């Protein structure tokens, strides 16, 4: 058996929490900050319909590539237009990225990394956009 050369982690839902309650908080934040006349839950439910369209074609041979930023802006624009909300899609994406960047690590993340890094090369490999990178 080959010796392990490196350990690679995904970011969200592996090292950092990213469950439904965090997304609900983000959508509540969007609604509140933009003064939208809709609940965060209803906005999220409508947004998911548009997001699932993107997910259904992502990675297919005949589909153009859209990063999350592009896809999510399109989803927010679609929801805001369909519901006549007048929301700001760019501000919504800023809120999403800011909120995701503040999600807590899982309780065992640091201890795991502290145990592994002296022994193995470690890396984070994620399908998240570069807007999530630490500068």
Key words describing this protein structure:
single chain; 135 residues; mainly alpha; 2 domains; two-stranded parallel ribbon; 5 helices; 52% helix
Kindly summarize this structure in a few lines.
This protein has helices at residues 20-34, 40-57, 68-83, 89-101, 109-116; strands at residues 6-9, 121-124. The protein has 135 residues and is mainly α.
Describe this structure in words.
With 135 residues, the protein is mainly α. Helices cover 52% and strands 6% of the residues. It contains five helices and two strands; from the N terminus they run βαααααβ. Helix 1 crosses helix 2, helix 2 packs across helix 3 and helix 3 crosses helix 4. It is globular, with a radius of gyration of 18 Å.
Distance between the termini: 38 Å
Mean pLDDT: 90
Question: What is the total tally of β strands?
Answer: 2
Topology order in helix (H) and strand (E) letters: EHHHHHE
Question: How much helix is in the residues?
Answer: 40-55%
Q: How many structural domains can be distinguished in the coordinates? A: 2
**Overall SS class:** mainly alpha
Which percent range describes the beta-strand content? 5-15%
Multimeric organization: single chain
| Rg (CA only) | 18 Å
Q: Strands across the major sheet, in which order?
A: 1-2
Low-confidence stretches: none
Per DSSP, the total helix count is 5
The biggest sheet amounts to:
2 strands, parallel
Q: How would you sum up the global shape?
A: globular
Q: What layout of secondary structure does this protein have?
A:
Elements: E1 6-9, H1 20-34, H2 40-57, H3 68-83, H4 89-101, H5 109-116, E2 121-124
Parallel strand pairs: 1-2
Helix pairs in contact: 1-2, 1-4, 2-3, 3-4
């Amino acid at each position: 058996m080959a010796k392990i050369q490196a350990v690679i982690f995904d970011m969200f839902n592996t090292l950092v929490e990213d469950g439904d309650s965090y997304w609900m908080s983000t959508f509540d934040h969007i609604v509140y900050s933009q003064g939208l006349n809709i609940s965060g839950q209803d906005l999220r439910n409508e947004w998911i319909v548009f997001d699932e369209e993107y997910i259904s074609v992502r990675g297919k041979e005949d589909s153009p590539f859209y990063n999350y930023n592009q896809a999510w802006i399109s989803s927010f624009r679609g929801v805001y237009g369909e519901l006549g909300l007048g929301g700001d899609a760019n501000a919504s994406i800023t809120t999403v990225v800011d909120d995701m960047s503040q999600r807590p690590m899982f309780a065992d993340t640091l201890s795991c990394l502290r145990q592994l890094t002296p022994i193995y090369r470690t890396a984070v490999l994620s399908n998240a956009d570069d807007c999530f990178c630490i500068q």
